[in-house]
Amino acid sequence: MDDDKLRARADVSCYTAAPIELQRYTVEIRKDDPTAPYVSNLLAHHLAELQSVMGEHAQALDASGLSAASVTFWTAWQGETLVGFGALKQLDDAHGEVKSMRAAPAARGTGVGRAILQHIVAEARARKYMRLSLETGTAELHAPAIALYRSAGFVSCEPFASYQASPHNQFMTLDLAD
């Protein structure tokens, strides 16, 4: 079966109700194309969920934004199943931003988010960034992600880049200087 058929089937599989047990399987992180058809449903779900909670304050990038030259996009796979995605945006030579972290609904709580975040942090270190930052929401929906970021060493910080503080968002950063 060719890759497009595998990925198309994976797109449907990521919305199954049964949780995925990652303890038995390896998650493969692949540099990928955010405009690929197999990404579209999960990305649409991500954007719609954030829009429903944050409204006009949602800062998530769509496929076009995730395709920018300053952004590197990865997908996470368990076998043939798309289980998540994440991106790294270069803000300057020493500062990167975590963008659009998402685990598929059936993969939440299984370690997919941690695997993607570890990959992004490792890439930021390989690029010799001194700091890795992110913007996330304040709604209950964001609590698991915030806990993940804190467990990885991220701490609260002031708005960075062109972000403006609001009651709907918060900012975190990780010092990568050795």
Could you describe the 3D structure shown?
- By secondary structure, this protein is α+β, with helices and mostly antiparallel strands.
- The protein has a single domain (3-132), classed as Aminopeptidase (3-Layer(aba) Sandwich), CATH 3.40.630.30.
- Helices cover 32% and strands 28% of the residues.
- The protein has five helices and seven strands, in the order H-E-H-H-E-E-E-H-E-H-E-E.
- It has helices at 3-13, 37-54, 63-66, 112-126, 143-151, and strands spanning 28-31, 71-78, 81-92, 95-103, 131-137, 155-156, 169-175.
- A seven-stranded mixed beta sheet has the order 1-2-3-4-5-7-6, with helices on both faces.
- Helix 4 (112-126) links the parallel strand 4 (95-103) and strand 5 (131-137).
- Helix 1 packs parallel to helix 2.
- The longest helix has 18 residues, at 37-54.
- The relative contact order is 0.16.
- Mean pLDDT is 84; it is low at 1-24.
Short overview:
With about 180 residues, the protein is α+β, with helices and mostly antiparallel strands. The chain has helices at about 5-15, 35-55, 65, 110-125, 145-150, and strands at about 30, 70-80, 80-90, 95-105, 130-135, 155, 170-175.
